[in-house]
Design a protein that fits this description.
The structure holds 2 protein chains of 2 kinds. Chain A is mostly helical. Helices cover 64% and strands 6% of the residues of chain A. A 4-stranded mixed sheet of chain A has the order 1-2-3-4, with helices on one face. Chain B is mainly alpha-helical. The chains are: A mainly alpha, B mainly alpha.
C-alpha cells in the first residue's frame, strides 16, 4: 500500500515539475532525490514486512457461539473459559442479534508494556492474559462491534456502546442519582413521574426543541459560556456575549439552537439511555435487539417500544419504576438494626460479667 | 460508687475523650467542604457525593478506635493492680463491672454528642443541591450504636484474663493462617470471607458498621 502511495507521489511530483517547465538538469536532480526517497521507503516497508511475517505468534481459533477469537497459544486455557463466559453474557444481552458478531473475528494479543506489538492490526484486542481481563476485553470489543454495526441514529442517541453489565443494580442506582441531582427541569419532572418530561430528558425530542426544557435560564447561560470556543458560537458572537454578559436568555436559546446537537450536554448521563435500552431488551426477550435494529428509520422511542414489545409509555413507566426502586439506601438506622445492635451490646456486656476474672 | 468509678475513669481517659470529641466534631464539618454551590452541575454533584462517601469511611473507623481505647483504658489500671482493689470492695462483682461499663459508655457519649453537633452545623452551613438531603441525626445515631457495640465487644475482651485474650487472638490468627495455607495449596475453600460475612452482615454483631455513612445523600 505504501509503495503504491509513494509511486503516486512520485508521479504527481514529476507531473508538477513538468508542468512548471523547469530546466532539465534541475528536473533530473529532483527525480534522483525522489528515487532515493523511494528506495529508503521501500527498505523501511521491507523491515516492517519481515517483522510481521518473520516471527508469527502461534495462535488458535476459539469459536464459541458467534464469537470467533484468535488466541495466542500460551493463554488458550484461560481464554477458552473467558470467551465462553463472554459469549454467555453477550448472548443473553443481545439475544438472536448476537449472531452478527460471527462476521468479525477478534484478534487477542498479549500486551507488552503499554504498546501494541509491532505489526499487529490496530483493532487487535490487547489483554494481560488473565481470565478476568480476557473476559472484560472481549466483552468490550464485542459490544463495540455490535454498536458499529447498528445504524447511526441509534449510535448517536446511545452515545457509546451498550456493554453488558456485570452488576445489574449498579446502573439503575446511578441513574436514580442522576435523576435526583441533574440541574434540569425536565429531569426533575421526570423524577416526579412526568413521562413527557422523561421523553425530553432522555433525548427523544430534537435538542433545538428541548433546550428550554432541558435547562433553566442560568444553566443555559453557563453552557453557552462553556462552549463559546465552538465555531457556530463564534459566528454568533454578539448573541453569545448578550447571553453570557447581559443574561439575555432569548440569545442563549438562539445560540444553543444553532450549535450541533452533540455540543449541548444532555441533562441525563448516557447510563440513563443504556438503562432504558436494557429494560426494553429485558421486556422484549431474545429477539428484542434484532427488532430494535430492524426498526431503523423510526423515532427512537418507537424503536425501543418495538424492541420491548410494549407501547412506549408502558416501557417508560416500567423503566421509571425500576429506577425509583433502585434508590440508594441513605444512612439510616432501621429499628431492626438498632435493636440488633443493642442486643449485641447487651450480649457482650453479659460476657464481660461472666469473665473468668470473677470466677 | 458509680460517681467515683466515673471520676477515676475520666481521669484516665480524658485526653482520649477530648481528642475523640474534637475529631468527631471535625469529621462532618470537613466532609462538606465541597458543598459550596447550590447550582452545581451533574459532575459537581457527583464529585460532592464521592467526597462525602470518602469521608464516610472514617466514621466507623473513629467509632471503632474510640471504643477500643476507652475499653482498654477502662480495665488497664485494674489489670496493673491485679484486681486487688476490685476484690476488696464490699459489692458484688457484677455491680463493679456494670459500673465500669456504664462509666465508659458515658464517657463515649461526649464524642457522639460532638459528632451530632458537628453534623448539624455542617448540614446547616452547606449549600445542598436540590435533590439531596442531610441526615445529621441519623448519622449520629448510627455512630452511637456502632460505638456502643464495639465498646461492649472490646470491653468484654479487655475484661478477660491475658490468657482469654490470647485465645481470642489465637483463633483469629489461626483463621488467617488456614486461609493462607489453603490459598497456597490452591484449594478453593475460603474460611475468612464467610466468617467476616457472618460478622459484618445481618444479623452479625458488626452489621451497624456497614452501609453508607453519608451525611448528605439522596
Amino acid at each position: 500500500m505504501s509503495r503504491v502511495a509513494l509511486t503516486a507521489l512520485l508521479a504527481v511530483a514529476c507531473a508538477g515539475e513538468i508542468a512548471a517547465q523547469a530546466p532539465a538538469s534541475a528536473l533530473r536532480a529532483r527525480i534522483d532525490r525522489l528515487e532515493r526517497a523511494l528506495g529508503w521507503a521501500e527498505a523501511a516497508a521491507h523491515r516492517i514486512d519481515s517483522l510481521e511475517h518473520g516471527q508469527p505468534e502461534p495462535t488458535d481459533t476459539l469459536i464459541v457461539g458467534a464469537l470467533h477469537v484468535l488466541v495466542p497459544r500460551g493463554i488458550l486455557p484461560q481464554a477458552r473459559v473467558a470467551v465462553t463466559q463472554s459469549w454467555s453474557v453477550l448472548d443473553s444481552a443481545f439475544g438472536t442479534a448476537a449472531v452478527r458478531l460471527s462476521g468479525r473475528p477478534f484478534d487477542l494479543v498479549m500486551m507488552r508494556g503499554s504498546t501494541l506489538p509491532p505489526g499487529r492490526r490496530s483493532d487487535a484486542v490487547l489483554t494481560t492474559g488473565t481470565e478476568a481481563d480476557i473476559r472484560q476485553r472481549v466483552l468490550w470489543s464485542a459490544a463495540h462491534a455490535m454498536s458499529v454495526q447498528s445504524d447511526s441514529a441509534l449510535r448517536v442517541w446511545m452515545g457509546g456502546a451498550l456493554v453488558p453489565e456485570h452488576d445489574p443494580a449498579r446502573e439503575p442506582r446511578a441513574v436514580y442519582l442522576a435523576l435526583v441531582t441533574a440541574p434540569s427541569p425536565a429531569a426533575r419532572r421526570c423524577f416526579q413521574r412526568d413521562l413527557g418530561a422523561c421523553r425530553i430528558a432522555l433525548g427523544f425530542t430534537p435538542v433545538a426543541d428541548a433546550i428550554t426544557d432541558w435547562y433553566d435560564a442560568e444553566r443555559r447561560r453557563v453552557i453557552v459560556s462553556e462552549i463559546s470556543f465552538l465555531e457556530p458560537v463564534q459566528r454568533m458572537r454578539g448573541a453569545a456575549r448578550a447571553c453570557v454578559e447581559q443574561r439575555q436568555d432569548a440569545d442563549c436559546v438562539a445560540v444553543l439552537r444553532r450549535v450541533p446537537a452533540t455540543a449541548v450536554p444532555a441533562p441525563l448521563p448516557a447510563s440513563a439511555r443504556y438503562s432504558l435500552i436494557r429494560h426494553a431488551l429485558k421486556l422484549g426477550g431474545r429477539d428484542a435487539y434484532a427488532r430494535l435494529l430492524a426498526a431503523a428509520g423510526r423515532p427512537i422511542d418507537q424503536r425501543l417500544a418495538a424492541a420491548a414489545g410494549v407501547p412506549a409509555d408502558t416501557l417508560l413507566r416500567r423503566w421509571h419504576a425500576d429506577i425509583i426502586a433502585a434508590r440508594p439506601q441513605p444512612v439510616t438506622v432501621d429499628p431492626r438494626g438498632a435493636w440488633m445492635a443493642l442486643a449485641w451490646g447487651l450480649a457482650f456486656g453479659l460476657v464481660a460479667l461472666r469473665s473468668s476474672r470473677w470466677r | 460508687m458509680f460517681r467515683m468509678i466515673l471520676f477515676t475513669q475520666w481521669k484516665w481517659a480524658r485526653a482520649v475523650v477530648a481528642l475523640g470529641a474534637v475529631i468527631a466534631f471535625a469529621l462532618p464539618v470537613l466532609s462538606v467542604g465541597q458543598f459550596g454551590r447550590e447550582q452545581a452541575s451533574r459532575w459537581e454533584v457527583q464529585a460532592m457525593l464521592s467526597s462525602i462517601q470518602s469521608w464516610g469511611v472514617l466514621y466507623p473507623v473513629v467509632a471503632g478506635l474510640l471504643a477500643l481505647l476507652i475499653a482498654v483504658l477502662t480495665w488497664s489500671p485494674d489489670h496493673r493492680g491485679r484486681h486487688v482493689y476490685a476484690l476488696t470492695l464490699p459489692v458484688p462483682r457484677w455491680h463493679y463491672v456494670l459500673g465500669r461499663f456504664g462509666a465508659g459508655a458515658l464517657l463515649l457519649a461526649a464524642p457522639v454528642i460532638a459528632l451530632w453537633a458537628g453534623a448539624l452545623i455542617a448540614a446547616a452551613a452547606a449549600s445542598i443541591p436540590p435533590g439531596l438531603q442531610a441526615y445529621p441525626t441519623m448519622l449520629a445515631l448510627r455512630f452511637s450504636l456502632a460505638v456502643l457495640v464495639a465498646y461492649a465487644l472490646l470491653f468484654a475482651v479487655a475484661s478477660a484474663t491475658t490468657r482469654t485474650a490470647g485465645y481470642v487472638l489465637g483463633v483469629l490468627a489461626a483463621l488467617i493462617l488456614v486461609e493462607v495455607l489453603l490459598s497456597v495449596a490452591d484449594v478453593n475453600v475460603h474460611i475468612l470471607g464467610p466468617a467476616l460475612m457472618r460478622v459484618f452482615l445481618w444479623p452479625g454483631p458488626l452489621e451497624i458498621f456497614t452501609g453508607r455513612w453519608m451525611l448528605i445523600d439522596v
